[in-house]
Structures are given as structure tokens and as C-alpha cells.
Amino acid sequence: MKNLWSDAGARTAVTRYAKDGANEDLALRVYTTRLLGGEPRLVLHGGGNTSVKTSARDVSGKTVDVLCVKGSGWDMGAIEPQGLPAVRLEPLRELLGLKTLSDEDMVNAQRCNLLDSASPNPSVETLLHAFLPHKFIDHTHANAVLALTDQPDGEAICRDVYGDEMGYVPYIMPGFALAKEAFRVYRETPDVKGLVLLKHGIFTFGDSAKEAYAGMVRMVSRAEKHIRKGARGKTFAIAKLPKKIAAVAQIAPVLRGLIAMPKGDGCHDRFILEFRTNRALRGFVDGREIKRYACQGTATPDHVIRTKQKPLIVPAPTAGKPDAFVRAAAKALEAYVNEYRAYFARNNKGRKVKKKELDPIPRVILVPGVGLFGVGGSAKAARIAADLAETNVNVIEDAESMSRFEAIPEPDVFEIEHWSLEQAKLGRGGEKPLSRHVALVTGGGSGIGAATARAFAAQGAEVAVLDLDGDAAKNAAASFGGLGVGCDVTDPKAVRAAFDAVCEAYGGLDIVVSNAGAAWQGRIGEVDDATLRKSFELNFWAHQTVSQNAVRIMKEQGTGGCLLFNTSKQAINPGPDFGPYGLAKAATLFLMRQYALDHGRDGIRANAVNADRIRSGLLTGAMIKSRSKARGLSVEDYMAGNLLGLEVSSDDVAKAFLDLALSPKTTAAVLTVDGGNIAATLR
Ligand code: ZN
């Protein structure tokens, strides 16, 4: 592991953070915290923490000793001075005299001593930082150190590597008891350069930010060297797998459907999947002994809240035998859920204060022959689960290359998983109506499509934007962190590939807005067939291709779905010389009704939005001009030439799509967005 400290970088940090009111101690603390946090082999997603003991002025102007310690919810790689809230040091140190201290009292004592009451909660490991006397303290869950300690004789191995340079703290759950024990170990061996927390991580410390950081890099490098030396070559014996394995896009919707939990009102609590594969992962998931080494527990305790103790392992999916995979995966999930409930009951028994049972759905799924899926309530949560799962694979592989991987025992895992201070990091408070849903919008690169994609993303959906113009699709999707795919919706192969890409990115699909279209003109008695056929290709057939792909995936998931079509006023009220456009759109309006009729039994709804005279819609500026001219109106009067006298925008149409998506009992409906046009009303 490389030491990334640079004197110039440190000086820049001091100047930069001084502008935020940070003193030199805090600025350097931010600087090396970011160095640590930028290295995934040391720190991942909120794991690890750092502190500095310095002084600050309180509201009365008095200078007081404080501990600036990482706040809960901050990521070390992107930390700012306000992510290291200042806590009065003396009152924290006084707690060392107590015999016991409940978590609630500990959190309260920490919050009561914040200089700024608006600060985030100081880390759950704050007291450990406070009790140790060193000025700068760094703590990580370094993979290499975990690979050493996560073995049956982990302590002996660490002593072999570090000797007297480090202190060794037995596994205790973070909090007051661990802080006291770490202090006790330190006091017995006060010359140590750091502490190894068995089956948890490593602390290093120093008088300067540079020293503490260099200590971390040095100690982790030594662990890495030891692993390389002790490795016995190939780790896992490979199991016999089917010759032809099913594609990720085929198995992901099956898994996503299986883990969706019915909510009782016909709706489901869905999850998003994040797929990962590479050579190391395949070596792991294809292994003959996968059940033994993959189900021991997590490399470091705090992963468990995002990955659970055990992954779900499903049988390898044979290509061309989807039904067999569905049955086998369902059976594996049922066993997983039963086992999880038994684990909860077993560990909750005999407690004075009962724990609240969490959902029994796995957060990591291992598929031999394929790779792994991270599972979460959002694409971000799924990504985090996948990152942690990959880290666990690395640690387990390294541990197994020397001896055997061994995590903390089940009762300790249970404590962490159900610990209120850890669960507080999750929570579903921020969820929106379309959170946990995947939406796809065709023609989403501009106009109505882009507005609709934005509106769905704003309501929490993970959104894929398809557009003929791949760059436009990517740009539109980038504005809300979605997936952009270039796709000609009149080419069935391209549509299939785009839907596959969406399944690989999110695990499946819940809502499809079939929006792509274009307006061809021509007087019907004279127009050439080619024009009419071209319009039908895009304004009818593409809707059919898109919908068939959507239904295929929705049926694989078995959790219903929502099809939305952009029809047009032309589908109901023909305009002069707009036959090529209107005829295809009228067919699409009936297509919507046919989907509603044939697939209502699959829980799939189909609805349409009938919009007219939209600015930046399907009509080009030239078309609007020619139409308004034909009616002897100015462009402005033409655009607002409706019963309400209001101009209709793309955002108004997007809202109509959203309303239909959020109406679970509505199907086969057409919602009109045109400011009122009596000739185009439905009857
Ligand atoms: Zn820790």
C-alpha cells in the first residue's frame, strides 16, 4: 500500500480549510482522513473513523480542549471539517471511571458535549478515541488486517506479523466496553504504535497527522506482505457447473421478483439489484465449498447491516431451462428466509429487551457460474451491498489462501445487526412514492420523454433513458444519475439489447413509458405507402416491441407492472393531412387497451396520455408555425388555443404519466393533457 502523503497537499489543505474556519489540526485531520477514505482496501462506505485532539472556542469565548471525531453519516473519502464535529474532551474522559454505560447514555453524553448542537452524532467509536491519549488517531477496517485476524488463530498470526509494536484487543462490540478494553490494552503496553481489534480492524496513532497515517499504511502493508508470502496459490476448488449458463439479464428479473415482498394491497416491496462479476468473484462463487466459506459472516462486523450475515446462494442457472431455475431459486430463498427467522428467534430468546425483527430478504445473492448481486432499496444501497460483498470475497479469499476464514460468532453478529445505533444509519424515512421501482422511458433524450424521466427520478425511481441519440440519452440520464442507452426502438434486436442492459443495471423493470414517436404528414388519398409504413414502424410497431419486452420481464418478476403510452390527440380527433401520424397513433391507443385487457391478469396496467400542442414536444418549431398560420393565429395564441387558455408544457405531460403510474387501480385509461379541446374529448 502506497503512502500518499505530500507536504504540498497538506499545505493546500491547511489554506483551503482555514477558509471554513478550521485550524491547522483539523485541516490536516481532514486531509489524511480523505487519503484513508479514498482507498477502498482501507475504508468502505462509512466504515472507519478518525479523530484529532485540539482546542476550540466555545460560545463564551473560552478556549476548551475538544475531540474532533468523525460524525455518523459522513464518508471519509469526501469528508469536510463539519464532518468531524467537536466534542468537549474532558467530560468524555471522565466516563472512563464508570463501570458500565448504556448505548443510550453514551450517545446522550456525546451529544450533550458537542460545541455545535446541529452536528451529526459523533461516531459510535468516539470514546475509544477519547480515552487514548494520542493527538491523531486513525481507524480503518483494512482488508489485509482482517484477512489476518479473521482466522481461527488470528491473534497469533497478528502477533507474528507485528510483535510488540501493536496491542491486541479481543473482539467486543463497539461502544463503551470496547473503548475501556482498548484503553486497558494500551495502558499495559504504552509503547505500541497502534491496536489490532481482532475480527474488526486496526487503529494507529501519532503526534501528527502524518505519523498516524504513515503508521496505518506501514502496518497494512506488512499484513499485505504476509498474505502474499503465505498464499498457497489457487484458493478454491471449482464445482462442476452446467455447460451453458443463462444470461444475467434472464436471471436477474427472476431473482428480483422472488425477493419482492407482497404488501397485502396488491403492491410489492421491491428491491434493486446491482450485478458484479470478475475473475476473483467467479473463483469464489464457482467454488465447491461455497456454502462453508461464504456463509460464515462478514469480514468486519458493521458490514452486517448492509449485507446480512449470510448471502443467498442459488443453484447455477442452465441456459434454456428458465423454469428449473425459478423453482430452484425459489426453494433456496424459502430455506434462506426460514433460516433467517430461526436465527432471529434463537438469538432473541430470553432477552429482557426484545429486538425488532428485520425483513428476512438477503442483501447479497451468489450465483455460481455467473457472479453476485447486491440487493438494496435503491440503486445506491444495492451498490453499497455489492461493494461490501466484493470486499468480503477478497478478505475471505486471502484468509483461505493461508488457513481458514472465521468471522465473529453468531450471537455477536446478531447484536450488531440489531443494534439501534447501526440500524439508525439505514431507515426508510427518505423513501419516495417510486423508490424501489425501475422505470424506462423511450425517446427520453429530449422533450416530453426527458421531462417524464426527470419527473419519475424525482419521485425516487431508478430511471433508464432510451433514445435514438445515444448521447442525448446519456446526458438526460446523467442529470439524475440514471442509465442512458442509445436505442432505435424500431429495431427489435436493439430493443432487446436495451432491455437486457436495464435488467443488468437494476435487476428488472416496473414501469415503461413508451414515448418515442414522430409526426409524419400527408393527405391520405395521395400519400405514398412508404411514409405511412414509416410512421407505423415508429408510432405503432415500436410501441408493440417495447411493450412485449416489458411484459416478458414483468412476467418473469411476477410483481405486475405499468405500461404507459404516449398517444396523441390525433388518435381521437384527426387533423387535416395528419393521417400517417394519426392512424398509427389510433392503433397504439387500441394497443394500450389490448394490453390492459390481456395482461390485467398478470397485474400489468396499461394507460395512455393524450397530449396536444406541447411546446418542445413532437412538433418542430416549423410545424407549429405552419399550423398556427393555417388557422390565422399567432404562435402564442395557437399554443394556448384551448378551453383554459393555458399553454401546455412537457412537464404537464410528464405529470400525467406520473399520476397514472401512481394510480394502482387504474388501467385502460386515457388521460388528456391539452388545456381542453372539446373536439378531442373521449366519449
Ligand atoms: Zn470500526
Structure, described:
- This protein is of the alpha/beta class.
- The protein folds into four domains: 7-230, 3-Layer(aba) Sandwich (L-fuculose-1-phosphate Aldolase); 248-426, L-fuculose-1-phosphate Aldolase, CATH 3.40.225.10; 438-612 and 649-674, 3-Layer(aba) Sandwich (Rossmann fold), CATH 3.40.50.720; 619-647, no CATH class.
- 44% of the residues lie in helices and 14% in strands.
- The strands form four sheets. A seven-stranded mixed β-sheet has the order 3-2-1-4-7-6-5, with helices on both faces.
- The longest helix has 29 residues, at 529-557.
- The radius of gyration is 30 Å and the shape is elongated.
- 48% of the residues are buried.
- The protein binds zinc ion.
- Zinc ion binds at residues 125, 139, 141, 200-201.
- Residues 125, 139, 141, 200-201 line the site of zinc ion.
Mean pLDDT: 92
Number of helices: 25
How many runs of DSSP E, i.e. beta strands?
Answer: 20
The CATH architecture assignment of the largest domain turns out to be: 3-Layer(aba) Sandwich
What composes the largest sheet? 7 strands, mixed
Strand content: 5-15%
Question: Poorly predicted ranges (pLDDT <50, ≥5 residues)?
Answer: none
Q: Give the names of the bound compounds.
A: zinc ion
Through-space gap between termini: 72 Å
Question: Biggest sheet, strands in spatial order?
Answer: 3-2-1-4-7-6-5
For CATH, the homologous superfamily of the largest domain is named as: Class II aldolase/adducin N-terminal domain
Helix content: 40-55%
Rg, Å, rounded = 30 Å
What's the CATH class of the largest domain, please? Alpha Beta
The third-level CATH topology of the largest domain is: L-fuculose-1-phosphate Aldolase
Shape call: elongated
Please tell me the total number of domains.
4
Q: Structural class from helices and strands?
A: alpha/beta
